[in-house]
Amino acid sequence: MIASEAAPFAKTGGLADVLAGLPRALGRLGHQVTVFVPRYRGAPAGEPVAEFAVSLSGRTLAARFDRHPVADGVGAVLVDCPALYDREGLYGIGNEDYPDNAFRFAFLAKASLEFAGRMFERVDVVHAHDWQAGLAPVYLKKQFAQHPVLGGVPTVLTIHNLAYQGLFPADVLPTLDLAWDLFSVDALEFWGKISFLKAGVNFSTVLTTVSPGYAKEIQTHEYGFGFDGIVRRRSADLVGILNGIDVDEWNPMSDAALPAPFGPNKLAGKRLAKKQVLQSFGMATDQAGMKRPLVGLVSRLVDQKGFDLLSSVLPDLLQQHAGYVLLGNGDPNYEQEWAAAARSHPEQVGARIGFDEPLAHLIEAGADIFLMPSRFEPCGLNQMYSLRYGTVPVVRATGGLDDTVENYRPRSGAGTGFKFKACTGPALLRALGCALQVYQDPVRWQAIQRAGMRLDHSWDASARKYVKVYRRGVVRAAVGARAARA
Description:
The protein is an alpha/beta fold. 38% of the residues lie in helices and 19% in strands.
């Protein structure tokens, strides 16, 4: 696997969690997995296992490769090239990307493949993740086609978020060891630029994305970000596989961030978590404070996560009989808005700008409702954490949110949360209002909680689906090789 981040070595978002959870689950199934990721500033040094020069169009840089054992059958190799990766941020500083990101991540793909070709006896599949690894399938076909280890190896590209496409000026193409004939609509060209993501889509054997719903959505104009036609062209090779969660890290029965353990048959500890959340935000923990439903939000504060919808109805939210606790950062306007709401309504709103992992766990456990009004959500993890912790999700029916939350049906009492389809503030208010109404009936509410807590969103189920994709790729590569020989 090749990726730009993987926990615990580097993390800015859910991609790193996938590169931590999926390889371990594959290892438990008996597979051998090596994850390649840059060694960014602050990442620990591992066991040096190789050092050699890597060249791209005449520019040669020395790379050291440090191996870290991860789990049975699973290791990580950190590509150490200080000139490219020993920097303040992973991708840039603030909202400004590094101007040489095209070279940085082309180097990652090339160096990872060269290491595999030198150090491994064989490779069954190369699994590239997102645009940063999008050139790996191209290099395999164009530069390693006759390699004794890598020649003919199938590739899988996983699209974690289609909104990020790795776009660069066309004139960087020759600096990446790629010929100008790849600057075409069938290869890397995208509206006069080159796209690393398009490279991966066009040259990979099989494509996956992180939920079945998102696999359908990215083929539409609304969610395709201009790539919908490109993806539709490969629709027969596209598979949606829901991300999993780390059920050891996110386990209310053993979570060290909680004041007491709890589970579907023993919910008392959840009330203690709620009290601790309220205390953490300086909110009342008297009988009235504990009785009032508590809505949690742990998120990046950006439009994608629906914070523009929240802004449009924030005064109405404050009229609801509910408390709100927010943890996250992002757009300064939203940070200021929620900080101001916490100052003006301290008894009802708590806001912590930034990120705090133990507090995130505590909010997932202590809130009664978790709100995720995302405009689009390829998979989403927080709704799955919420389900596991008995915190009923209220979500917009998009992507992985729609796949993982079953809308509550009053007649049968079935369901694990509340969903709304229209991307509007009033639709959000109606869904939250329904949840707050059902919350007043403890018997019905606990049935919803327990239904969600009994779901299995572990990585093991998802890993088995990935194995089927890998085998499909191997078969296709073998068929292609036989056809070429014929």
